[in-house]
Design brief:
With 346 residues, this protein is an alpha/beta fold. 38% of the residues lie in helices and 10% in strands.
């Protein structure tokens, strides 16, 4: 009679015979598994001499740049996702807050923070809500000051209010520029648009010097030009919105205008064709603004709701209030300039 085969356990200390004539396994076959012995000891990690030699400020700058790039990529990705999903809104003027916050303002912030190193003062003078009109000086050949003012209010005001610019017609007639201006929240510098913005509780901004301000020669820097006929005052009086004087120092030095090629300006339909120490001699390189140190100060509000209902039609009231705003801005400019020791270092 044949023997019944016995089951050999998979784990155990001793082997069991399955049949006669079978041999026992070596005891080592049932010992606990051991970690494999490496052929070579791992080399110790040694810091790269070149990395250790990099100064700490430079490492910090590199880290900040990496973080900024990652944030920008994330912002663009989120922007694309929301655009594809249609998760955004546009007001009657074409203002697209999603576009302004995700694309436009991030492009301007490096100029504001790193290039011009803008210091903002008096931001508390801007009301947290309700309509108000910011009135500022204008300079610099290219209206960069308006863009920097919008960043100042959006980033530094406790309520992070958008600043809605009242811009010249030319800005909206230029291909591409007009579309971006509308999406960024800006509109035409005309009384109907200004009054609509103020009545709906928006924070608007106007630069009464216009092209006379940004196109004036460098020899006349920080000397305010005429403020027009007081159209901005009329809009404020009609709506009862306070006027916030705004003085900007630093914009005059970004493109020092030393000449004007009038025939070329007429040919191109421009108010002026500027000549600076670097443009047009150095071509596109001459378009890089000089890194002057900027100061933006918002003055105390000038109330308009105390005037009677017909004040906006009174030429004397318009003149006096316009002159008051102009003189306030001019005196503030002189005060800021007296404190500044260096154009580029502040």
């Amino acid at each position: 009679m044949s023997e019944v085969a016995k089951v050999i356990p998979l784990h155990g200390g001793r082997s069991v015979r399955a049949s006669q004539g079978s041999r026992e396994r070596h005891p080592s076959a049932y010992t606990e598994p051991r970690e494999p012995t490496p052929l070579l000891d791992p080399a110790p990690v040694v810091a790269s001499p070149s990395a250790a030699a990099i100064p700490t400020p430079l490492l910090s700058m590199i880290d900040d740049t990496k973080t900024a790039v990652v944030d920008q990529i994330s912002s663009v990705a989120e922007f694309v996702r929301r655009r594809l999903a249609g998760d955004y809104s546009v007001d009657e003027f074409g203002y697209d807050p999603h576009f302004a916050d995700a694309i436009w303002l991030p492009l301007l912030r490096p100029l504001f923070d790193k290039w011009f190193r803008v210091e903002v003062k008096g931001i508390e003078n801007i009301p947290s809500d309700g309509g108000a009109l910011v009135v500022a000086n204008h300079a610099g050949v290219v209206p960069v000051d308006a863009l920097m003012a919008s960043v100042a209010v959006r980033d530094h005001h406790p309520a992070h209010r958008p600043l809605r610019m009242l811009a010249a017609d030319m800005a909206f007639e230029m291909p591409g520029v007009g579309t971006i201006a509308r999406k960024a929240g800006h509109t035409l510098a005309c009384n109907p648009d200004a009054e609509r913005l103020l009545r709906t509780g928006e924070l608007a901004a106007v630069f009464p010097e216009g092209f006379k301000g940004i196109g004036k020669p460098f020899s006349e820097r920080y000397k305010l030009q005429r403020f027009g006929r007081g159209g901005f005052v009329s809009a404020a009086l009609r709506t009862g919105a306070p006027i916030i004087p705004c003085s900007i120092v630093g914009s005059e030095e970004i493109y020092p205008k030393i000449g004007d090629i009038a025939p070329l300006a007429r040919l191109m339909g421009m108010p002026y064709f500027p000549v600076t120490p670097f443009f047009p001699h150095f071509g596109p390189l001459g378009l890089i603004p000089l890194p002057s140190k900027w100061y933006i100060e918002f003055g105390k509000p000038i109330p308009t709701d105390s005037y009677d209902a017909a004040a906006f039609e009174d030429p004397m009231v318009l003149f006096e209030l316009t002159d008051h705003v102009r003189e306030t801005i001019q005196h503030t400019l002189y005060r800021l300039l007296a404190k500044r020791r260096n154009v580029f270092l502040g």
